[in-house]
Write a structure and sequence with these properties.
- This protein has 344 residues and is an alpha/beta fold.
- It has a domain at 4-184 and 236-267: Rossmann fold (3-Layer(aba) Sandwich).
- It is built from 11 helices and 13 strands.
- It has helices spanning 13-24, 41-50, 64-73, 89-94, 96-116, 151-168, 203-211, 239-254, 275-286, 310-316, 324-340, and strands at 4-8, 28-33, 55-58, 77-82, 121-127, 174-180, 182-184, 218-221, 233-234, 236-238, 262-267, 273-274, 292-295.
- The chain has a 7-stranded parallel beta sheet, sandwiched between helices. Strands 7-10 form a two-stranded parallel sheet. It has a two-stranded parallel ribbon with strand order 8-13.
- β2 (28-33), α2 and β3 (55-58) form a beta-alpha-beta unit.
- α1 (13-24) runs parallel beside α2 and α3 packs parallel to α5 (96-116).
- The relative contact order is 0.15.
- This is UDP-glucose 4-epimerase.
- It catalyses: UDP-alpha-D-glucose = UDP-alpha-D-galactose.
- Keywords: Carbohydrate metabolism, Galactose metabolism, Isomerase, NAD.
Length: 344
């Protein structure tokens, strides 16, 4: 019997890549997604890439009874990877209640149902936003949690506390929280990638949509930050590298090799790249010139952050291996493939 893993938000960007890696590693995957920021045909593409079709249930994680029914229907789910969350910093500033309801209640529902259905562990999709603007760079897992700059960032902090408090209360749950830096790129097959519904809130899909002519120009938010070229600095990590970290985390939970009941790992490359550097890198990798303009700073943005990934490298045996150039090229190939498929 293959071990069953539930992936919430599994048709989303990071979720879909992770489902492929889980299936390639021999797990049986059940996806829950409400399709608020993805589409059902992602399941077809997961099957094309991995050769296995995951189970798909269209469901909102706010629906407690619906979730309960899924656990009952698919008995023996061993662990959960929880991606289902609203994730745009700018939008969260505009719509805080949507973010608090969606991101907190979905996790609470899962944690409540896990002991009832004998689910042993959860891998939580967290974020480097919990560090705010760190005092020291690169940032380690020991860095203090700063006051969040956005409701989105705050939901990640609160969710980490909810997990810690639940485990500390004696709930029979183990957890691994992966604090991602900035996932970009697409699957090398160009069958999976980042395709948000509507106007993209993330840099790379907006960038590739601008490059292909769907958007008039890319806005760079601020060139007056305290960085070498004035634009924000981030740690851009390839989405497939990131997906593989989840498979290792799941195995660690199921094989009971955790050192603590709740563990935290930074999942990044360890290299800071500015937004303007990224644009130049894209132009170099693809030969496509980009129409962009510098505009004012955006609410909620952090000036600079990149990871110290040593703990994940040593303890998990995980490492980011894809180059930035290959990653940017994969994002462009994905955009070209979307055009070929007549999407957008």
């Amino acid at each position: 019997m293959k071990e069953r893993i539930l992936v919430t938000g599994g048709t989303g960007y990071i979720g879909s890549h992770t489902v492929v890696e889980l299936q390639n590693s021999g797990y049986e995957v059940i996806i829950i997604d409400n399709l608020s920021n993805s589409s059902a045909d992602v399941v077809d593409n997961i099957e094309k890439v991995s050769g296995t079709r995951p189970v798909f249930e269209k469901l909102d994680c706010l629906d407690f009874a619906g979730l309960d029914a899924v656990f009952t229907k698919y008995k023996g789910i061993k662990a959960i990877i929880h991606f289902a969350a609203s994730k745009a910093v700018g939008e969260s500033v505009q719509k805080p209640l949507l973010y608090y309801r969606n991101n907190l209640v979905s996790l609470i529902n899962l944690l409540e149902l896990m002991p009832k259905h004998g689910v042993e562990g959860i891998v939580f999709s967290s974020s480097c936003t919990v560090y705010g603007q760190p005092d020291e760079l690169p940032v380690t897992e020991k860095a203090p949690i700063k006051k969040a700059e956005s409701p989105y960032g705050n939901t990640k902090q609160i969710n980490e506390e909810i997990i810690r408090d639940t485990v500390a209360s004696g709930a029979p749950i183990n957890a691994i929280m992966l604090r991602y830096f900035n996932p970009i790129g697409a699957h090398p097959t160009a069958l999976l990638g980042e395709l948000p519904n509507g106007v993209p809130q993330n840099l790379i899909p907006y960038l590739t949509q601008t490059a292909i002519g769907l958007r008039e120009k890319l806005s760079v938010f601020g060139d007056d930050y305290d960085t070498p070229d004035g634009s924000c600095i981030r740690d851009f990590i390839n989405v497939v590298d990131l997906a593989k970290a989840h498979v290792i985390a799941i195995r660690r939970i199921l094989e009971k090799t955790q050192k603590e009941k709740v563990e935290v790992f930074n999942i990044g490359t360890g290299r800071g790249v500015s937004v303007l550097e990224l644009i130049n890198g894209f132009e170099k990798a693809t030969g496509v010139k980009l129409n962009y303009q510098i505009v004012g700073r955006r609410a909620g943005d952090i000036e600079k952050v990149w990871a110290n990934p040593d703990f994940a490298n040593q303890e998990l045996g995980w490492k980011a291996v894809e180059t930035l150039e290959d990653t940017l090229r994969s994002a462009w190939n994905w955009q070209l493939k979307l055009r070929e498929r007549g999407i957008q």
